[in-house]
Specification:
Blueprint: H1 5-17, H2 25-35, H3 41-53, E1 58-60, E2 68-70, E3 77-81, E4 87-90, H4 98-105, E5 119-122, H5 125-132
Helix pairs in contact: 1-2, 1-3, 2-3
Bound molecules: zinc ion and manganese (II) ion (MN).
Amino acid sequence: MALKYSRQRQVIKDFLMTRKDHPTADVVYMNVRHEYPNISLGTVYRNLSLLADLGEIKRLRVGDGVDHFDADTSDHYHFVCTECGSVIDLMSDGLERITETVEAANTGFDGEIIGHVTYFYGVCGDCRKKTLS
Ligand code: ZN
Ligand code: MN
């Protein structure tokens, strides 16, 4: 049974909302496939891209060459483990003001800054425990 486009998109979004680990299209596909065996990786990727373009989810490009996706569109930051590649939510009070800070430091710049992209890199708790043990 083929799923309607809108239904496919909802299934993919519903799955993403159950995950806090910022999965790639591959991971979404592997999971959604259990319930919808006829869905293709291409369909999953296209729908994730469309949802991101529509602003219903976030697309994260953290530098590992593969897009990660986040159903949480609220303002928050991400930590990327340089050992295992996991992408973890980080809250930050004040970093949102980075735009004002940068504008204040660049008085000769006469454009308008409308946003910024910031990722934090390091070693996650699990990987730290592995090196310590
Ligand atoms: Zn790690
Ligand atoms: Mn997130």
